[in-house]
Request: fold
Amino acid sequence: MKRNLISLAVAAACAFAGSAQAQISDGIVKIGVLNDMSGLYSDITGQGSVVAARMAVEDYIRASKSTLKVEIVGADHQNKPDVGSNVARQWYDTEKVDMIADVPTSSVGLAIAKISADKGKLHVNSGSATADLSGKACNANTIHWAYDTWMLANGTGKAIVKSGGDTWFFLTADYAFGHALERDTEAVVLKNGGKVVGKVRTPFPTQDFSSFLLQAQASKAKIIGLANAGGDTTNSIKQAFEFGITKGGQNLAGLLVFLPDVHSLSLEKAQGLMLTETFYWDLNEQTRAFTKRFAAANGGKYPSMVHAGVYSSVIHYLKAVDAAKTDDGTKVAAKMKELPTDDALFGKGTVRADGRKIHPAYLFEVKKPSESKGPYDYYKLVSTIPANEAFRPLSESECPLVKK
Amino acid sequence: MEIFGIPSQALFGQLLIGLINGSFYALLSLGLAVIFGLLNIINFSHGAQYMLGAFVAYLSLNKLGINYWVSLILTPLLVGATGVLIEKTMLKRLYKLDHLYGLLLTFGLALIIQGVFRHEFGSSGMPYPSPEVFQGVFNLGFMFLPKYRAWVIVVSLVVCLSTWFVIERTKLGAYLRAATENPSLVQAFGINVPRMVTLTYGFGVALAALAGVMAAPIYQVSPLMGADIIIVVFAVVVVGGMGSIMGAIVTGFGLGLIEGLTKVFYPEASNTVIFVIMTIVLLLKPAGLFGTQK
Reply:
């Protein structure tokens, strides 16, 4: 009897220890930062996102006294869905990665979201723009963090139509992201009484936009909407100046412009651009403090909205892992939606049922060279779009997870 | 008046732009053709050397205050000198081996150069202002032509045609061509063949750097600019016929035009059209349009 009792106790102890171990697979929470480390989006995402993820882990563990062991790995998807998918499968299947963060380039982002759902893992996306990630392509294992095409269209697009820019010609990057941004902006233009007079799909990426710009010029549209990003955006803005398009009375609308893009264009060429972002380093004391640390670890380069998104999303992810006491993708995703979000960069917010993270967005105007105090002092705030208006309302969502 | 539903004026504009892009293709493929024709080296680092040209111009403007005009002369000399160094220390050892070794070496060099610059400067690229004289546009009636782009066409034509003239019509060119056919015989006539080969490689590299300086005010000065254009330029050289100088020039401008037209009629295909043409040409004339089968 006594022997039985002891063996029972030992068995129970083993079972307990076993179950405690099993909660966090292999004892380590492993986060994979997958993005463009070498191409045209590598300044917006790239190594900076790995830096941001590391900072998030440090800050979370210090603040919460959590005992989690966290490891960060990074890889280059070269903006190709097939390359990205291969890395994701390898990470999930053999390298015990629990969550994939960042993933710019919408075509790759959509592929990773699908793989994460198939394998019951978790993808928290900060880099991709397409609103389909929390729309018709949503799933229970994907959360979309920093920004999306619906938000951009309703920020920049709406502001421009309201200020009189009511005829549009689109220069659209020919892949999932460009198509989504064009679609969402066109909807906003039409809804606010504007008209779309033409569009051209440009190969991704493109060096020389002059031919497409001439087509835009011939259309006589008041606004040339740039549904592209990164190097494509800077090249098209630069060449529009060169061809005197803005002097002819037409204006450019950069529908997705990041801080590093403005930095590379110089204020002389970028001044006056309206743009929408959910993060800017000079918003408040906390964003400035973060930026100082980030720049020191990132070769002096300031953070983009995507870097900030990676930081904020990793903090919330770790909080959810601790709260759910597991790193199982599906369970943590549910926990992330249940818990309110709160961090230094985006403030308080929520993650909705469709996987959309909700926070305010800001409409900025790029400063004139005379207004800027130095490098990276580029934006002035035009208006703040409150969190409940910044993103697509649930009532319009095509996401099957949303109960109507 | 309309041609295929496109106003003819718009079409002229597009043709002109095609010609400008063609100028870059011609300048770059010219250097490649010279190097391949005379050294039998497939210079895969050509794109990186073009990027290097743009960066040297950018850095000398911002760090040393050297303006565009001086850069136009100085940069090709500097980058050409690095070419001489590469030839002397590395390429020289490969002449007796298969083409593949030269290709691998130069490809590796390209990756290293690009990697270093990306690490140092990031991928977004840096702005380079066009020189004062060329700011502004010509109003051609059917389009605004930026003055700087007109300058690009002129320089490219002058450089291409003079290179062709030197190699095909002068005594120096004759030595060069003879040296590729039979180096030991030419050496026996008292001509320093190894030095000539070194300088030829340096010259080809200098041409790439010149194209880089020319491109700096148009595109962002970015570590990726060479990788983006080099594949197209190789297609141009293959279509023109490996090693054919005139082939490289004519095909460069010609494919620029065709690409320009594709951007109007079917923009989605504009980055593939050159490769479609390359495939067709290779099927019909494996040595390229101007090449001769050896």
Remarks:
- DSSP finds eleven helices and four strands in chain B.
- The first helix of chain B runs from residue 8 to 39.
- The two ends of chain B are 48 Å apart (CA to CA).
